[in-house]
Design brief:
single chain, Nucleotidyltransferase, domain 5, 4-stranded mixed β-sheet, 4 strands
Length: 106
């Protein structure tokens, strides 16, 4: 098991969220964001880049816009951003910033 996965799993055990969480999954080609409800830990909504066109950063920004719209429709004002062990750089950063630009507090 890689050290990134060990650190990721270790940090997940300690977390007990009291706010809604946006969790990021990043593959080589796509990016997925999930909105998770804190008490039941069930997924409320997802946004992904499977059908999007453009560069990886542009697609990540579009996913962030979709997620921000979903969060606004559900009338959630503040969310936590779980980068899921990925560095806050590139596509993960673009997704987070596009959510922030649409007046959602992270």
């Amino acid at each position: 098991m890689s050290t990134r996965l060990i650190k990721k799993n270790r940090s997940k055990k300690k977390l007990d969220y009291d706010q809604h969480v946006v969790v990021v999954y990043r593959s080589n080609k796509n990016i997925v964001a999930q909105l998770i409800e804190p008490k039941t830990k069930k997924t409320l909504a997802t946004a992904n880049s499977y059908q999007e066109k453009g560069t990886k950063i542009e697609r990540s920004t579009k996913v962030g816009l979709k997620m921000a719209d979903i969060i606004k429709k559900k009338k959630i004002t503040k969310v936590l951003f779980d980068r899921n062990g990925y560095l806050y750089h590139g596509r993960v950063k673009a997704l987070a910033e596009s959510i922030r630009e649409n007046n959602v507090n992270i």
